[in-house]
Amino acid sequence: MTDTARELMGQANTLFEKRFGLLSLWQTMAENFYPERADFTRHRNLGEEFASNLLSSYPLMARRDLQGVIASMLRRDKWFSLGTGRETEKASAKKWLEHSDSIMRKLMAERTSGFDKATSSADGDFVTFGNAVLSVELNSARNGILYRCWHPRDVAWSEDEAGMVDCVYRKWKPQARELVKLFPDTVSHETRTTASNAPFTEVQAMHIVCPAEMLGGEYKEKLNDAPFASVYIDMAGQAILEMTGIHNKMYVIPRWQQVSGSQYAYSPSSVAALPDARLIQAMTNTLLEAGEKFTNPPMIATQDAIRSDIQVFAGGITWVDDSYDERLGDVLRPLNQDRGGMPMGFDMAADVRSQIDTAFYLDKLRLPDTRAMTAYEVSERMQEFVRSTLPLFGPMEKEYNGQLCDITFDIAMRSGFLGSEQDIPDELRGEEVEFTFQSPIAEAVEKTKGQLFMQTAEMLQVAAQADPGAVHDVDVSTAFRDALQGIGVPATWIADEDVAAQSKQAAQIAQAAQMAAESGLLNAETGQ
Asked: Average pLDDT in the 225-240 region?
């Protein structure tokens, strides 16, 4: 076991050493956009001011706004739903799927789950650095799911041949007493001694999640044939504290955009806004100095005529030689300055703030006002909104929310939170579940259905004038139902398809009977 611990620690050290240069970039980005996280290459003391190096808070607020958008747009209300990807599902299958995603949302909403806290911190990391690290696991009481966010500084990972994260190495600094409490039988002698003498001392530990096959066949039985291994290591004693098999990767590592050859992603927002963030700090400094010169201008004094220190504050007195002849000029006067550059400076600062907004997609996150537009204009504006926000929301749905939901479902299913496996409908057994997410992109795409229906109706009206049979080329009923769903009409307002079909059939029969009756009455009146 000791040899295995040393081998795993060696793999971890190699990854952390290769990533060392990246910490400087993350530190720079954090100092400009996320000062609360600016401890990649330095230690921050308690009580230290976070943003003492900044003169303008605008870059911080831009990052904060985008960070808040992720939760408000991608994880609000019923933000995900379970399905199988099939076009039609039986009522029993739909009921089980709806019941399951309802339970998952309750597990996430539990106060002790830490979901909101973890995802809020991870959103900031994702926006600023392009990477975030969360863990999803059963809590210690095994009656719920625990979500935690970890500092990117402490985590390194590698990819498999498919470009997916396969091995995760997380440095951990628990107190010595905490480590002894968690692993009383396997903790090293060095750590046990530290816990006895100085229990609150932080010790070095590591958590590793990797494919089980990496550990070799001798651990197959110990891992219970699970596809992944979870390993805790006491680094002081180079000993394995715990090795267990798990059925999911446990860690969720959403990555925004990647560069070929690196397993680490980057944030296109921070990369684009970093020059402007530096520029606005310099411009703010210049404007502050210029404004201070106008409100407290430099003074020109006559040599040997001033007999005291210059007191230019309110109520101050500056003594001058009484023999000085003021016909020669003021003994003390402000230096005249040209203020013409100030408006230009403010305009340039406003332009830089606009560039930062664009870098963080803040100018693209507002749905267009469609009240005064035609159906065609609305459709085009919605398509434009989808195109402009797709680089932002696309990776978040798949890389971020998708991983969270997949691991949550796996844990909930295996832990019995979703009920017994015997309760699963037969038509769902062996099926792969899929998650669909509610987002501005999905909403915009759905809303276009309403506009497309209006366009189709207008075109069908024109076509029917030329050829009455053209009305049969469009399934109006299906198109109308899709349009109603697209514009957000509640499902309870829409009749079931079978009920609607029966109602239509009854109406057609009644209409035919009425026409027959009218025809019979007409024949009786005419004697035919």
From this structure: 90
